[in-house]
Amino acid sequence: MVCSLIILLTLYFTLCLALLNTLSAAFVEEITDAIAINCVQKTSHLHFYFHDIVSGKSPSAVRVAGSPNSSIFDFGNMMMVDDALTEGPKLTSKLVGRAQGFYAMASQNEASLLMVMNFVFMEGKYNGSSITILGRNPVFVREMPIVGGSGLFRHARGYALAHTISVDPKNGDAIVEYHVYIWHFQGFVVA
Ligand SMILES: *[C@@H]1O[C@H](CO)[C@@H](O)[C@H](O)[C@H]1NC(C)=O
Ligand SMILES: *[C@@H]1O[C@H](CO)[C@@H](O)[C@H](O)[C@H]1NC(C)=O
C-alpha cells in the first residue's frame, strides 16, 4: 500500500540520516530491518437516507446560481445544501449526519450533476468524522467517488451508491437512499 510504503521510506531516510554520522553500516542495516510498519486499512459500509428539501419556509437546499426562472434541473443551476442524513427513510427518523456542500447541473444534454459535498456524521463512534464526495452524479446511474475524509475516516477512498426513494412532483423535495463503501485508515502495526 502507498501509505505503508511512504511511512517506511520516511522512517528509513530519517533513521539513515540520524545514524549516518554515528554508527557503522552494519548497524544501520539491522535497524532498517526492524521497522517494517504497515498501515492498516479498514472497510466500512454505511447506509442512510438523504433529504433534499427545496420547498417551504426553511429549505435545506437553496439555489445559489443559475437563472431564477429555470427549473432546478436546467444546466448551470447550483444548489447549496445542508441536508439531513437519517437512519430511516422518514425525515423524522433518527438524524445520523448532514450533507453539506453543493450540487450543480453540469450537463447540457442529460441529468448529470457535479457533487461537491462533505457528509459529516453525528452518531456513535462516527460522531464528528466526515467523508468528502467529489465527482459526477449521473442521475440514472448514481455512483459517486469518495475522495477523502476526516476523523475515523482519515485517508478515505471509496464510493457512494445512491437510489432515489421519492421525489415530490409538486415541490421537488427528494429522499435518496445512500450506501457508502469507505476504505479508510485504522492504525499502524509493526510487521
Ligand atoms: C423571470 O420571469 C419574470 C416573470 O415572468 C420576468 O419578469 C423576468 O424577466 C424573468 N427573468 C429572466 C432572467 O428570464
Ligand atoms: C457528538 O459530538 C458533539 C460534540 O462533541 C456532542 O455535543 C454530541 O452530543 C455528540 N452526539 C452524539 C449523538 O454522541
Automatic annotation (TrEMBL):
UniProt cross-references to Pfam families, sorted A to Z: Dirigent
Protein keywords: Apoplast, Secreted, Signal
Gene Ontology CC: apoplast
Keyword Metal-binding assigned: no
Annotated localization: Secreted, Extracellular space, Apoplast
Primary localization: secreted
Source superkingdom: Eukaryota
Signal sequence, start to end: 1-18
Protein purpose: Dirigent proteins impart stereoselectivity on the phenoxy radical-coupling reaction, yielding optically active lignans from two molecules of coniferyl alcohol in the biosynthesis of lignans, flavonolignans, and alkaloids and thus plays a central role in plant secondary metabolism.
Family membership: Belongs to the plant dirigent protein family.
Complexes and interactors: Homodimer.
Name of the protein: Dirigent protein
Organism: Carya illinoinensis (Pecan)
